[in-house]
Amino acid sequence: MNDEIDLETIKNKISKRIKDYYKDNLVSIVYYGNHLRGKTVEIDVLVIIERPYDPVKMNRIADFVENIRDPVEKEYGVQLLFDLYTKEEAENFHVGYLDIAEAYEIIYDKDNYFNKLIKEMADPNKAIKHVEYLNIEYISIDKNN
């Protein structure tokens, strides 16, 4: 990490870059993970956009890598890990939400969207509705049979 610039300054610059890139399509910027606990210089960020400007998710991820992640890593010498979701994608349960719920910092949140979403995901009575579609079969392993 560039010694002349502190972590908060880098996060402010990352946030500005994200806001400038997504403009009115941006819904939320949320930092989470170990850097909030002072354990690493790796920065985790969740970005939620309103609508998919490209129907192919891999293209949207490639755009983020090219226009945000790679320039940030090159300029500031930090590793930027990210999740990029549309609102529709964000409303499905993601295992990463468990890590986010432990420690997060909301930088931008249009209409309090993420704040409402994470509270809903953390509510056990509501969270189960997000994973009802999972059909897990358990196979008994009995060495005697």
Would you mind describing this structure in some detail?
The chain has 6 helices and 4 strands. It is of the alpha+beta class and 145 residues long. It has one domain (7-130): Beta Polymerase, domain 2, CATH 3.30.460.10. Strands 3-2-1-4 form a 4-stranded mixed beta sheet, with helices on both faces. The longest helix is centred in the middle third of the chain and has 20 residues, at 57-76. The N and C termini lie far apart (57 Å).
CATH homologous superfamily classification: Beta Polymerase, domain 2
Number of structurally distinct domains: 1
What is the 3D shape?
globular
CATH class categorisation? Alpha Beta
Topology, pairings included?
Blueprint: H1 7-22, E1 26-32, E2 43-49, H2 57-76, E3 80-86, H3 87-90, H4 96-102, E4 104-109, H5 113-122, H6 124-130
Parallel strand pairs: 2-3
Antiparallel strand pairs: 1-2, 1-4
Task: Give a quick rundown of the structure.
With 145 residues, the chain is α+β, with helices and mostly antiparallel strands. The protein has helices at 7-22, 57-76, 87-90, 96-102, 113-122, 124-130, and strands at residues 26-32, 43-49, 80-86, 104-109. It has a single domain, classed as Beta Polymerase, domain 2 (2-Layer Sandwich).
Keywords:
single chain; 145 residues; alpha+beta; Beta Polymerase, domain 2; 4-stranded mixed beta sheet; 4 strands; globular
